[in-house]
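step: validate -> pass
step: tokenize input -> pass
step: predict -> running
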Amino acid sequence: MKGLFDKLSRFYGRLLEEKCPELAGSVDAFEQNRFLSGWAQDKNNPGQPLQVLVELGGKQIAAGRADLTRADGLSGYRIDTQNVLSIMDIAENRVRVIAVARDGTQAQLGRHYPFIQTIMKRLFPPI
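step: predict -> pass
step: emit ->
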């Protein structure tokens, strides 16, 4: 199982903080200028949902749990940011998404590369 998580972590996203290699996940989408979604999982305890926090400029603006079932077997989340975030906040790295384990261990989640491509296309559409 650990090998699967390592492969998925490399494929879907990576941790920006190497201090916590047991937590993995990514931000995969920002939909309707409101919902952030992705996955977060504790490799040592995959059945235990993680809390997911969304910060803008260092201030928490939303929270949720990675307790949604995904087709790839990972624990998904979809967090309503109440229209507080903009695509520019994400593009300019003002947003942090943090996974929190039950014991308080935290790790910032990386961004899935196609998600970054989608943001760039929305900001700079082809002429």
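step: describe -> Residues 2-12 form the longest helix (11 residues).
step: cleanup -> pass
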